Amino acid sequence: MKAVNIIREYSEQFNREYEIEDTVRIVNTKQAGLYIKNNVPLIDIFWSKDNLVFVFNKNESKRAYQKWLNHELL
């Protein structure tokens, strides 16, 4: 049986932990803003390498991501 190594991250903004494997990170502020506008819950936000990084749950953001790719996310 293969050992599973779960990597957890701590959100300073939301004061909770989350599993990195379950998330996507977005630095495009327009894309992240549209995710939030379309009720995709924000898991974390932080500053890295001169960018804001928005963290969303991978499964909860799938629909918004497909709409983004198809230029349908309004």
Work out the strand percent. 35-45%
- Main sheet summary: 3 strands, antiparallel
How many domains, as an integer?
A: 1
Helical amount among residues, as a percent range?
Answer: 10-25%
- Overall geometry: globular
Notes on the protein architecture:
This protein is of the alpha+beta class and 74 residues long. The protein has one domain. The chain has helices spanning 29-37, 62-69, and strands spanning 8-11, 16-19, 23-26, 42-48, 51-57. The strands form 2 sheets. The chain has a 3-stranded antiparallel sheet with strand order 3-5-4, with helices on one face. Strands 1-2 form a two-stranded antiparallel ribbon.
Q: Which terms summarize this structure?
A:
single chain, 74 residues, alpha+beta, 3-stranded antiparallel β-sheet, two-stranded antiparallel sheet, 2 helices, 5 strands, 23% helix, 35% strand, globular
How would you briefly describe this protein structure?
With 74 residues, the chain is of the alpha+beta class. The protein is 23% helix and 35% strand.
Describe the SSE topology:
Layout: E1 8-11, E2 16-19, E3 23-26, H1 29-37, E4 42-48, E5 51-57, H2 62-69
